[in-house]
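Handout, section 4.2: multi-component inputs.
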Amino acid sequence: MIIVMNQNATQEEIKKVIDKLTNTGLKAHVSEGSTRTIIGVIGDKKVIAELPVEAMAGVEKTVSVTESYKLVGRDFKQEDTIIDVGGVQIGGRQLTVMAGPCAVESREQLLESAHIVKAAGAQFLRGGAYKPRTSPYAFQGLEKQGLEFLAEAREKTGLKIVTEVVDVESVATVSAYADMLQIGARNMQNFQLLKAVGRTNKPVLLKRGLAATINEWLNAAEYIMSEGNYNVALCERGIRTFEDYTRNTLDLSAVAAVKSISHLPIIVDPSHGTGKWKLVRPMSRAAIAGGADGLMIEVHPDPSRALSDGKQSLTPENFSLVMQEVAQIGAVVGKSLL
Amino acid sequence: MIIVMNQNATQEEIKKVIDKLTNTGLKAHVSEGSTRTIIGVIGDKKVIAELPVEAMAGVEKTVSVTESYKLVGRDFKQEDTIIDVGGVQIGGRQLTVMAGPCAVESREQLLESAHIVKAAGAQFLRGGAYKPRTSPYAFQGLEKQGLEFLAEAREKTGLKIVTEVVDVESVATVSAYADMLQIGARNMQNFQLLKAVGRTNKPVLLKRGLAATINEWLNAAEYIMSEGNYNVALCERGIRTFEDYTRNTLDLSAVAAVKSISHLPIIVDPSHGTGKWKLVRPMSRAAIAGGADGLMIEVHPDPSRALSDGKQSLTPENFSLVMQEVAQIGAVVGKSLL
Amino acid sequence: MIIVMNQNATQEEIKKVIDKLTNTGLKAHVSEGSTRTIIGVIGDKKVIAELPVEAMAGVEKTVSVTESYKLVGRDFKQEDTIIDVGGVQIGGRQLTVMAGPCAVESREQLLESAHIVKAAGAQFLRGGAYKPRTSPYAFQGLEKQGLEFLAEAREKTGLKIVTEVVDVESVATVSAYADMLQIGARNMQNFQLLKAVGRTNKPVLLKRGLAATINEWLNAAEYIMSEGNYNVALCERGIRTFEDYTRNTLDLSAVAAVKSISHLPIIVDPSHGTGKWKLVRPMSRAAIAGGADGLMIEVHPDPSRALSDGKQSLTPENFSLVMQEVAQIGAVVGKSLL
Amino acid sequence: MIIVMNQNATQEEIKKVIDKLTNTGLKAHVSEGSTRTIIGVIGDKKVIAELPVEAMAGVEKTVSVTESYKLVGRDFKQEDTIIDVGGVQIGGRQLTVMAGPCAVESREQLLESAHIVKAAGAQFLRGGAYKPRTSPYAFQGLEKQGLEFLAEAREKTGLKIVTEVVDVESVATVSAYADMLQIGARNMQNFQLLKAVGRTNKPVLLKRGLAATINEWLNAAEYIMSEGNYNVALCERGIRTFEDYTRNTLDLSAVAAVKSISHLPIIVDPSHGTGKWKLVRPMSRAAIAGGADGLMIEVHPDPSRALSDGKQSLTPENFSLVMQEVAQIGAVVGKSLL
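Output:
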């Protein structure tokens, strides 16, 4: 950490800051500029993080120079993490596609979706059994029955299942059915839930919060990993900005940014990211070209009958086109769809 | 809801949309403009909300004309809600001030804080026993012991206690100690938690999420109320924007906006809203002038020793000045500090 | 400036950075932390600002510790600037209110507006003769004729005139009629225009850009001052965020922030800031309570007939109520309306 | 336009709104829902746009259903616009790359840059002669001399020249040297400048404003086109959001969105869009995969000596790699680099 003193900080104020550092077991490295004094703080990261020096007289601001996370960083692990989900790999040279309806609506709808996405080449079936919804009066999901339909779809198609877990109570139940646990955007900083999935042995797909910086997102992954579960994949799904033509603003720069900071694989969800089915196809191509390890896409046998998010769901035909193009783009960046 | 058709939508596409509405038991009111057709949808709100017409051919967009919440709105209840917390009122002609440290750090720190804020005229003691933190390695709170210190502070000062509940598991425990349950910004859309506090008989302080629209915030309050707990106060604490001089952007317009839409009382937290103790005093005055029912302010006996948020905490002296000014501003808008 | 090196920067990379600094006439102050090296840069501000060290191998990021502006800062001038506009003061103990229609629409409308705002106590008449509009097909203002109506209104009422100048070409013309030149939000970084008004002897009202940080806004004021015109007042008018209930998000924290960094007076425009006439009254009170030196408010004899911004304009009656409350709030913070 | 009345609007209020419409020559199409009345407005777009009905009693809000632009839309022109710049085409099946230094710094630097980008396959040389800078004390460009160096580079390499024009005064001068005029992000709503370039016969590259919606951006293009200049290419260069890891958030969804709404070609600038040279390569690939017609990239012979934006400039080697990958991705989406 660097402490920037006010331009008119007194010698006494500077001394008090240095004393505080020394008393806390840290080292101060003082640098007197032409207009102000700057103090470099050297020592234990955790102690530094808790230091309330900005409340001291004469201090203008502090600047962090190290991140608070460890396990998610390239400093901790150089090589890319590859997650094995029952034989399907996420990360590395493979592209992973997770597709299916926004919500599990019925046995028929789910099985039909499963066969469609399997036929087009997806490895994972997605579908929400528990649905967090803005309004308490909106459809909240089939819950346990939805999980059973997902399990049946897996049996019938061999697809892996990824589905959302919305609270600590249901972690065990969802884990009994799913191959991978999804943490939704609204729960990205539900720290109790992160710790709970961190104590399971199930791979986790961690969606980025609507207003989460990359740094906060990586810290959320750190919560999971700090409990012992290292199988975390990140999922970029759009951030909230002033632009309202799209539902969210899909931040594809975050893909390359995450790749340079972290060893964790990263998936892109262009369906939630744009909110418009017409944009899903070009943004799927863009995501893979930009270095993503895979895609999460909403596909519905009949989007105009979907109980939620119909307007951002692809028809089977359009999904099939996406898969073909993704394979071609993947080849350019050295990745392939199995 | 209004359905706006594409400029080149065909008669058949328009007919299919109308048929879909009719088949779902809704009425369609068609209006042919000079360049495009618009369809007004009349019928049950809930059925309309679930309608995926945007996925239908020829549809450009849909526009909601009614909100999804009911109980929080002025249409449901005209007069202002006044919450009684053991004799202290929130809302109406009274100004309520909740003050204290960000986190409960020790028995001494808390009791000292309690005496300070009591002396200056606050009615509530705030202080986190469970602390949601961006990094898993930051101080996470004293948990149950923190609650015990809060209860002791209440006994010694008569102050009411408001403290955060971070998961469903601890709702019962926190309820056993606190007079009012706080839902933090990160949990504003933790719907399981909202429903859980909605099933208690404790008043709830619902902080606005970092990226929550006013509409989403009111829907979150609706989650609590729909479970039977009508004692909900809202708390504006800043939204996330591009401006980085302040920690967040305190959205004071939301106060008057909420007052016009909803009957619920609203509190402003200028400490988190600005992140800088120097801005807390002017923004406290501004909040009350703008119509807020009270304030939540971080006060610490010695901000430079605080374990969290020291830079946004007031000293006892500054807090006392705030209280004096707030009383004067309150008088102008017809409210008083007891 | 501080240069933060990568965790695995080599000694040679560090040496190259230091050499570059030394060769440019700057001093390097090296500080080796436990995990990375930090280099403090000491020397001429302007030279430092142009230094492209972030492109050098081994450099992670740079952090500015001094601002690029000078004349606008409290370091340059401690005491508050008070601008005298033909006897009316902006800043200091006086509250200044600028009111009138969004656009000058006709001689009758303007004169009527002028008498209304004069009667209620405003010192300035506002009204756009040149109107920047999102669409080329919207009403663009009466231009020169509008200026003549403004001048006539001044003669008849004694009000000062503040009106927008939209390009370098019309600076001389507008200056011939107006008492104060307004730079609109869209032109806050139209640097040629800033320099042009900086070469006049007319006071300038500089509106904050829709997406401008406080730092960029102050730098825009610096452009004007660096040309010799020190009579600059800032005007907060809302920033663009995700919230869409209001037209913009009025950032009242910026008032106190600007007051602590700069000596320039600051005015608040709650009409554009909120876009809703119902919010103008509470936000006017809040602005004054938060330390603003005055207000700019849209008032129209009949808002439902306004050619632009009718929905955010006050009726004469509501404006009169605002003036009464503003006077009362002003008294609490030691300011008065003349 | 649709007018949504308040839930408790009176019959008289509804009548007054309808009368206003009728008196203005518009038609009202009234639709009474279960809880509120909605009025569809039919008639002349321009008259509707200026209607201040939101200021009328009983009106809750209005909703636009048609956009204010005409010439930029697909409704006006179905097929893609292809701009011919002295034999080089922008749009259609060709990919256009504009590359070079942020600022023209010297004759040597520019000529060296020109040879580098020519060799790698770019068709345009970019380079600012007039530089809009946040601080008045930063390097502002070589101005006329910079233009002369650009013209010399064109002569020596055959590259087309695109350079920024920052005010109405210099439009003629810049036009005398450049093949294409660039409007920078800060000037996207400098309407006088837009109209001035609209009256030239030079193709225009219109950068998106930092906080501009797609709708506002298209309206800015409409300003240029409405003066008679139909050769407008759009340039996405990142929007301002809360994320601060990148300089801006490159909004690639805007590419596909613009393609579906408008016939104009669109270029992506990943250098300003990300602010980090390491992200330029993956985001260049992503832009082309997402449907962009070309790229604008900062390349500098020695980024660590650049007078501005060194940290986002590519070295000649990295630029060459980008060009190779772009050609491969282009092939997948049916486009080629000449």
